Amino acid sequence: MLPVVNAAVVWLALLAADGGAPGAPGASKPKQGLVAKRWQAQRSPTAGPALSIGGTSLGCLQGAATLPASGPGYEALRLGRNRRFGHPLLVAYIERLAAAAKAAKLGPIVVGDLSLPRGGPTPTGHRSHQTGLDADIGYVAPPGLRAGRLSAVARERLGPLPVADPKTHVATPAFSPKVRALLALAAGDPAVDRIFVEPGIKKLLCEAPETAKAPWQARLRPWWAHHDHFHVRLRCPPDSPLCVPQEPPPDDGCGATLAWWFSADAEATRTKKKQAETAEAEPELPPACSAVLEAKGAVLEAQR
Ligand SMILES: [Zn+2]
Questions:
Q1: CA of 225 to the centre of ligand 1 (A)
Q2: Quick one: pLDDT band at residue 298, thresholds 50, 70, 90?
Q3: Structure pTM?
Q4: 51 CA to middle of ligand 1, Å?
Q5: Which of 160, 117, 126, 55 lies closest to 299, judged by CA?
Q6: How far does residue 71's CA lie from ligand 1's centre (Å)?
Q7: 186-204 pLDDT, tens per residue?
Q8: Which pLDDT tens digit goes with each residue over 27-61?
Q9: Cα of 136 to ligand 1 centre, how many Å?
Q10: How many angstroms does the Cα of residue 160 sit away from the middle of ligand 1?
């Protein structure tokens, strides 16, 4: 077991290094800074109706719902980042997962970033999470977390436990059948498009007889920097015509697809991706996002 303070440092480091390629969770880059700061400066959502606009790595969100800081089976962390906004379907998904995890005695779960109040790019952290359809959820809550009794300071400092080593992909003692059960619940929900997990965790799920042939196996996709949280991405909501869907996963993510993640080429690719991102020009958001950025804020419901 890692001391709590180490877990918090890991979670922060991970928030700073989440991902890479288009359509996957991705690290932001300095050139996006100015645009992202304008999105971050908007402290409240726009009025509805709720609309996810564009793609998760280049889009925005109208009419966001707020995830309450605490609810049955979950606690939201890092409220100071102001990223607990999502399409109402995402907030409903988290509440549904938390309730199911609680009923199965797997909880409490801890929730990290969703989106900024209007989605859009963030100056730090991810490239995705722009349309209110992405959420970071811990595999294992920090030890000692008492649901419903979390101080404001603890909420900012605590982080979930790593379940694998990000370099060797070997599971830590924090991995248990409960983590497998939580991922099965999370991925089994039909609202889910895909979930990014640590390659070592994906391997364990591909190998375990209970989960190897699970109908949701294809939704779990290996990705870098997901050793202490998994990243849920929902499908485009049916009432968001400007939402750009991702290609469906090409396979179950086991076999050759998974083997690549343990190769030297995977590490080299990660480095190349990071270099390419810093060299890229700043991409244009969909035109509909200008109105979202400039709209007057909705009156926020009392923060629960
Ligand atoms: Zn994420």
A1: 9
A2: confident
A3: 0.88
A4: 20
A5: 117
A6: 21
A7: 999 999 999 999 999 999 9
A8: 444 455 889 999 999 999 999 999 999 999 999 99
A9: 5
A10: 14
- Distances in Å between the Cα of 252 and the Cα atoms of 32, 193, 259 are 34, 13, 13
Q: How far is the CA of 123 from the centre of ligand 1 (A)?
A: 14
Distance of CA 139 from the midpoint of ligand 1 (Å): 13
* C-beta of residue 228 within 8 angstroms of C-beta of residue 162: yes
17 Cα–ligand 1 center, Å: 10
